[in-house]
Batch of 2 targets.
Target 1
Amino acid sequence: MSIEYSNLIAIRNLSKNKLEGQIPGSLGNCNRLVSLLLHSNRLTGSVPSELGGISTLYKLRLDQNFLSGSLPGPLRSKFKMGMQY
């Protein structure tokens, strides 16, 4: 999807799509995103800190992937409890 249209999307449900690779930091440019569901894929690497810059984001699911490291500071403080990683 072109980045010019990505700002129009409020909910991205990409769960259970067998996605592989790293979560792109460019998702941080989706400034109207309220829900990002990436669980049950084959994602690897760390969670990009750019996701913490999405002020409208209130739901983030990253569980059932192969992610490493800890959540970046902005996300850790935003999702203190109830975060599924």
Target 2
Amino acid sequence: MAQPEETPPEEPQPPILPSCPLPTNICDVARSDRPRSCCGMAVAGLRTAKYHLPEWHRRNAGIFYQASAVGEAAERGRAEAEHLAKRAAAGARRAQQHSKNTLGQRLQDVQFWRTELQKEIMELDAETQLLAAQKLRLERALDATEVPYAVVLDNLECRDRRQPPDLVMDQVERQLVKEAELIRDIRDLLKRTIIQATTQIRSNRIQKENCELDWSDKVEAYQVDDKCLSYCPDSTNVQSHPSSVKFEEPASTPKSWAQFSHDNISSAEQEKLSSVQLRALIDGVIRDSSEELRLQRAAVGEAFDRHLRELAGAKAGLEQHLQQVWGCPGVLGHPAWRTAPLAAFGISCLFHFLEKSWHSQADQQLSIKTNRLSFPWISS
């Protein structure tokens, strides 16, 4: 059985609004206080917003006057700016010239102190070398006194081995003891002088190092100031750093800066003067010591000669008496014949010993005189 077709539902219709008249646009024209135009009321709305010709001229004149005033103000500003620029440029040139003059004076001061320090360093170094040479002379002199001192002590020990009858404190032994004490005192003096020279050399080198440090600072300062002198406002390699023109607290003033170098030079002069005086003292010590040793050597030689002559006379007298004793009849039965040969033999041995000792001293003195083994520093 056929089904009846379903009809679709009807779409809703839009609501119908009632018709009404559109609103009218009413233009309100402002009432003008100007006199009415003679053209009629038809163009009254178009004529009321316009200016009159005198007003237009007055407005243009006002604009021209304002433009002229602004132009004159601009001219005055430009002229003032040019004037300020010229003043700033002139001030910059004056400041730069003043800085150049100040740097030039600074360079002269640095060059002066650098030259003085370099001169002082060279003089102090030369003086130190001279003092070192004098110290070497002292060391050689000290070494040269060892042989004479050993010879004198050996002579004294040999004289102590004499026979008891001849073991006396004679003039020879006194001179030998005096020579030993003299050489001992001279050696002590030379040692003290060497220590003093070493201390002075150390002081010279310390002061020379201080002057060299000050000199190196002056060289670096001269290079920096010389480079700064070549700068100008148009330089392209100038770099501005923060606080670059700030005066630092530990920085020195020109007065203290000059006083520092002056103190270094004064200290170097004092050390140099002390070194010169010490060199003169060393010359005097060497000269006086050598002269005293020469005089004492001559005194010892003279004492040996005198004592040898005395021993030779005593030996000759004993030999003569011995011959007389041996020539007398019946003397062989006398008890003295036993002791007489012994006495003569003792005198002969003593003479031989003293002669040998004297020859040893003479040979040693001859060696001092010819080979300069004892005092090579005397002729230096």
